[in-house]
Each structure stands twice: as structure tokens, then as C-alpha cells.
Amino acid sequence: MEYLFEKGTGKHLLLLHGTGGDETSLVDIARFLDDKSTVLSFRGMIQEQGMNRFFKRNGLNQFDYESLEEESDKLLAEITRVSEEQGIALEDWVIVGYSNGANIAAHFILERETKLNKGIFFHPMSLGVVNKKVDLSEKQFWLSFGAGDPIVEKSVFDELENNLKTQGAEVTVELTQTGHQLTMPELTAAKKWLDEI
Ligand code: MLT
């Protein structure tokens, strides 16, 4: 997979972009969250009309579940491989995902045994898969939702929050009055959460 790695002295931020982004898309966000962070950022391998994604879909919110499982395994394998190569423990990463990137991250957190245990998920949603009951106690996630989001319904956001909590995770939610886009108030709230964990 294509990825970008920049060594810093602060937090370890693992970046997963939204549909149409690439490995550079969230770097400024990461620098805002922690200007000294070490950054590892992947490019989704699925192409949808020239846009990068982390798994296939057959239309808006019509997910291809076979692709979701396959790409989750490939992405986790790459995260593990690059982390080993760089001498960084999986426990040290804070995942920072936006939209499609947040969705694949939340999926593999819920459905795979992994040492990754912290995440900031901007505008994520439940993908409707609840197969495994991985123990998420000791894991912490921060999630944002926009009241005017045309892509993420409140019900599927709530479903994700509930799934994470049911499996034992500590979840912090930031509600915004805007849509699917990132806003300064939510970035500031995410930074505060990151500073405190
Ligand atoms: C997804 O496909 O993961 C969601 O619809 C969000 C997005 O469009 O990226």
C-alpha cells in the first residue's frame, strides 16, 4: 500500500482519509492535533471513479461486505508491518480517521483482535456488521457527528457508538450543528481529548 511516514517526537497518529482523499489529506489535521506527532498515513487501495477508498461500495452507503473484510485484513497487516519496521508498538498509535477511513477503522476495531486501542473518528457510521464480540475494555474512542450530515444518519451513528460501548470501549462523542465536513470546534475538541489521554 502507498503510505507516508514522518517521524516526530509527540503522539503517534495513524491517518486514514475519507473518500477521494489520499495519504496527504489529513496531515495538516494531524499537525493541528499535535504539531510534533509521528505520522503514518495510508492511501486506500480501492478506486471509485478516480477516488481512493478503503473498501468498495455499490452506491452511497451500499457497502460491499466482502471487500470490507478483505481490505480490513490487508490494512491491518500493513499497519502491523510498517509499525514493526519503524519500531512502533501498535498500542502507541491513535487512529485518526475521517468518513470512509473512520468507517474501516471502526469496523476492524469492532471485528478484529488488535492491539490498536485509541481512535479519533470524524463523522463515522455503523456499517451494520456485528459478528464478533471483541473485548474493547481499556480502549478509548472519540467520535464526531454533524446534525446536518447528508451521508451519516443519526441512527447509524448511534448504532456505532452503542456497538463500541457494548463491547466495553470508553466513548466520547462530539456533536456539531454542521454536516459531513470537519469543523474547527470539533478539531479543537478532538485535540483536547488527545492531549488528555
Ligand atoms: C463510506 O462509504 O464509508 C461512507 O459512505 C462514507 C464515505 O462516503 O466515505
UniProtKB/TrEMBL annotation:
Cite the Pfam families for this sequence: Abhydrolase_2
Q: Tell me the SUPFAM superfamilies matching this sequence.
A: alpha/beta-Hydrolases (SSF53474)
Which segments constitute the Phospholipase/carboxylesterase/thioesterase domain? 12-195
GO molecular-function terms, A-Z: hydrolase activity
> Entry's InterPro entries?
AB_hydrolase_fold (IPR029058), PLipase/COase/thioEstase (IPR003140)
Q: What is this protein called?
A: Phospholipase/carboxylesterase
